[in-house]
Amino acid sequence: MRLVFASNNAHKLAEVREMMPAGIEILSLHEIGFEQEIAETGSTLEENSLIKAQTVWNHVPKDIDGVFADDTGLEIDALDGAPGVFTARWYSIPDSTGQCTACTGALPEQEIFRLNRLKALRELEGKQNRKCRFRTVITLLTGKPETIQVEGVVRGRIAEEEHGKGGFGYDPVFIPDGYDKTFGELPAELKNTISHRAKALEELVKLLDC
Predict the structure, then answer these.
(1) Model pLDDT, residue 92
(2) pLDDT band at residue 179 using 50, 70 and 90 as cut-offs
(3) Domain definitions of the chain by residue range
(4) Is pLDDT of 20 > 80?
(5) Cα–Cα distance between 167 and 22 in angstroms, integer?
(6) 98, pLDDT greater than 70
(7) Exposed (0-12), middle (13-18) or buried (19+): which is 205, by Cβ within 10 Å?
(8) What is the pTM of this model?
(9) Cα 131 to Cα 90: distance, rounded to the nearest angstrom
(10) Residue 12, C-beta contacts closer than 8 angstroms, at least 6 positions apart
(11) Given 3-state DSSP classes, what are the helix, strand and coil percentages for the chain, each rounded to the nearest 5?
(12) DSSP symbol at 21
């Protein structure tokens, strides 16, 4: 089975390829020659995931069995579920004071990750409740009439400061329930069995004919 994962994010691709069972080949957008930017205009993770999958499905070669796309949100209790659908670009959205960490200009991926983490720590300064959850929604399209969507959730809390150099995104500040280390400190093999993306992929694999 050949599936396109609607992403060129090297970290996500590595995680997905490691989790998928033998017999499923995962192709990136670059590998199928899809280079355009996809505007994530949805107001929910479900909508954005579907938008990405549908846009790519309209361009895939005929020998591809399906396309799946994910959208992930960090939902922080004390911030009424923010950043949610804006998780990846939270750094560019003004905070409650009207200030913005970096509102203009193109930034390298690692700098965006860093600024997002700094904003999370700043927004929770002085707050006792640091509970949150990561939620991933995956949409799979195969050319059949039905659209398949699955979800994976991992609950945890935001650390007081960054710990660890592993992972990506918010990993150095996210401590999953049942652990005393951040995703940035935990071994990749362990993270890939308990993460939100891992749980969503587990649900997806159950539905694949492989």
Answers:
(1) 86
(2) very high
(3) 2-207
(4) yes
(5) 24
(6) no
(7) middle
(8) 0.89
(9) 18
(10) 5, 70, 197
(11) 35, 20, 45
(12) P
Domain 2-207 adopts which CATH fold? Answer: Maf protein (3.90.950)
Using the predicted structure, report yes or no on whether residue 65 has a pLDDT greater than 60: yes
CA 12 to centroid of chain Cα atoms: 8
Widest distance between CA atoms in the chain:
54
Tell me which residue of 65, 3, 75, 21 sits closest to 45, measured CA to CA.
75
Task: State the catalytic residues.
Answer: 71
Spatial separation of the C-alpha atoms in residues 205 and 72, rounded to whole Å: 18
Q: Pick from 109, 90, 110: which is nearest to 100 by CA?
A: 90
Residue 39 has pLDDT above 90, yes or no: no
Name the nearest CA neighbour of 9 among 52, 62, 54, 43.
52
**Do residues 199 and 153 lie in contact, with contact meaning Cβ atoms separated by under 8 Å?**
yes
Averaged over 60-67, what is the pLDDT?
91
86/99 Cα distance (integer angstroms): 16
- Residue 28: is its pLDDT beyond 80? yes
For the chain, the straight-line distance linking the first and the last C-alpha, in angstroms and rounded, comes to 7
